[in-house]
């Protein structure tokens, strides 16, 4: 069973909660990526979890 991606409508409205900058969806990791903050926010059951304490640090 695959984890569904967030809807395009939802993705168009999301911003990083830390930097307020743009984010994009990464299907390989099923997460919302904020390059400026260096964070990956998980997506669970098609719903982005945009809480900084739930994010993981990106490899630089």
Automatic annotation (TrEMBL):
InterPro entries: Trm112-like
Homology family: Belongs to the UPF0434 family.
PANTHER family cross-referenced by the UniProt entry: PROTEIN PREY, MITOCHONDRIAL, ZGC:162634
UniProt protein name: UPF0434 protein CPA56_06645
Species this chain originates from: Bombella mellum
Source species taxonomy: Bacteria, Pseudomonadati, Pseudomonadota, Alphaproteobacteria, Acetobacterales
